[in-house]
Amino acid sequence: MSETLPKAVQVCDSVIFQKLQDEVVLLNMEEQNYFGLDDVGAKMWEQLAARKTIDEAVRELLRVYEIDETTLRQDLETFVLKLIDAGLVRPLVA
Questions:
Q1: CA separation (Å) from 35 to 28, 39, 63?
Q2: Is the pLDDT of residue 80 over 90?
Q3: Percent of the chain with pLDDT over 90
Q4: Buried/exposed code over 47-63 (b: 16+ C-beta within 10 A; e: otherwise)
Q5: Run of H or E including 15
Q6: How far apart are the C-alpha atoms of 92 and 94, rounded to whole Å?
Q7: 3 state SS of 29
Q8: 54-64 vs 69-85: helix axis angle to the nearest 10?
Q9: Cα–Cα dist 22/77, whole Å
Q10: I need a labelling partner for 81 at 20 to 30 A (CA). Which of 20, 28, 54, 74 fits?
């Protein structure tokens, strides 16, 4: 795992999210930014929003998708960093 990546994240207080069929819609109320996630992003979001660690999320997602662990982990880490940059999640403090 990347040194700059936290072990887990939590949804920021200013973020509202709603699942719509296979997608998730996110709204950062503080920034007034809207985001839409496709079905893969929605599955990743669900794992992270449940306050699972990155490692737990990887294990759960490997059960859903036929993909090698290295690729999945890289995709999830990239996703997490984008969520942090967008102010949608922050590192989870234990």
A1: 8, 13, 26
A2: yes
A3: 80
A4: bbbeebbbeebbeebee
A5: strand 15-20
A6: 6
A7: coil
A8: 130
A9: 21
A10: 20
Amino acid identity for residue 42 in this structure: A
Question: Where along the chain do its domains lie?
Answer: 9-88
Under 8 Å CB-to-CB from 83, ≥6 apart: which residues?
Answer: 9, 48, 89
pLDDT in tens, 15-51: 999 998 889 999 999 988 899 999 999 999 999 999 8
Q: Whose structure tokens read 């990347």?
A: 2
Tokens representing 4? 């700059």
Confidence of residue 5 (pLDDT cuts 50, 70, 90): confident
Q: For tokens 């990546």, what's the residue? A: 5
The confidence band for 94, taking pLDDT boundaries of 50, 70 and 90, is low
- Reading the block at residue 26, the tokens are 């996110």
Q: Note the residue count of the chain.
A: 94
Residue (of 38, 36, 44) closest to 64 by Cα position: 44
Report the predicted TM-score, pTM, of the whole model to 2 decimal places: 0.88
Q: What's the CA gap between 58 and 55, in Å, rounded? A: 5
